[in-house]
Amino acid sequence: xxxxxxxxxxxxxxxxxxxxxxxxxxxxxxxxxxxxxxxxxxxxxxxxxxxxxxxxxxxxxxxxxxxxxxxxxxxxxxxxxxxxxxxxxxxxxxxxxxxxxxxxxxxxxxxxxxxxxxxxxxxxxxxxxxxxxxxxxxxxxxxxxxxxxxxxxxxxxxxxxxxxxxxxxxxxxxxxxxxxxxxxxxxxxxxxxxxxxxxxxxxxxxxxxxxxxxxxxxxxxxxxxxxxxxxxxxxxxxxxxxxxxxxxxxxxxxxxxxxxxxxxxxxxxxxxxxxxxxxxxxxxxxxxxxxxxxxxxxxxxxxxxxxxxxxxxxxxxxxxxxxxxxxxxxxxxxxxxxxxxxxxxxxxxxxxxxxxxxxxxxxxxxxxxxxxxxxxxxxxxxxxxxxxx
Length: 389
Description:
Mean pLDDT: 78
Number of domains: 1
Largest sheet: none
Order of helices and strands: HHHHHHHHHHHHHHHHH
Number of helices: 17
Low-confidence stretches: 1-23, 233-244
Radius of gyration: 22 Å
Strand content: under 5%
Helix content: over 70%
Structural class: mainly alpha
């Protein structure tokens, strides 16, 4: 008889059935090389710091003037200090939650060398370093993904296992995002939660999110041996190659669904995903309160998730500028005056986006040391096995 535990373990075990793309392997190696080169090149470090300063000036000085709220910077000094402290506390909560999610999904449940290496300390380093890499080494937003993959491979995880677990990680995280868009869109529109309820900010995004969830559900139906089945067809090598992507995504989706179906067995992962989004919303909620702006809870949640859709738009580094504009536009759509929204969003982005960057850079330096320790362990293990042989 198949038990619930067996079903869960079997679903998670599918991670070993997938091939990671060659592009991701190359990107991971590129992250390591670019990181080392950046640390050794003072000119590049100076240019990077200058670019960050220019982006801050553009967002906090130029952008407000362009949209007609030039007094937004002056209002930043009016923020109530203890609400800013609350926002910073929520920032710590979200990264601790993200670390828990990472540990719950990517370190796995098997007692092996990878599980031992990917403890909470290493998970924190990879989480924070990945955040910094998304900004500093951004290649279409893939910097953090490539750094995470690099760290997993250096920890000893097989390519197939690393690829699938990363897919499951992202699917689990963004499934909650999509569910929230549907749930709060309906609750605000039907006046179960108070606040203005524009169709474009409630039902429309809820319907789109529901459609994406449906597509993910259909993707999960792609058989795990899809690639192998095409391999049996003569002269279809190209089809076999193309099948690798859908097969990887399908198994990752099924693994994420397994976590959702068995919440007690995957409390770290699910709690971490919920905590990440709750922490972000908490920062935003506290940022509004810092300026005594009363925004209904349902609008705060729906406005946040709606505004974050702007993260999909092309941006030089991890949504700089586009997310700010998207969040401001979302709350203006819900009837919140732009003059009061702007300073709150600027504080939100300052705490949620800019403040963690130094910690991320420090974590990256620590991670390089951790990876070096893993390499030394592997070298000694190799020598020991050769002596034994």
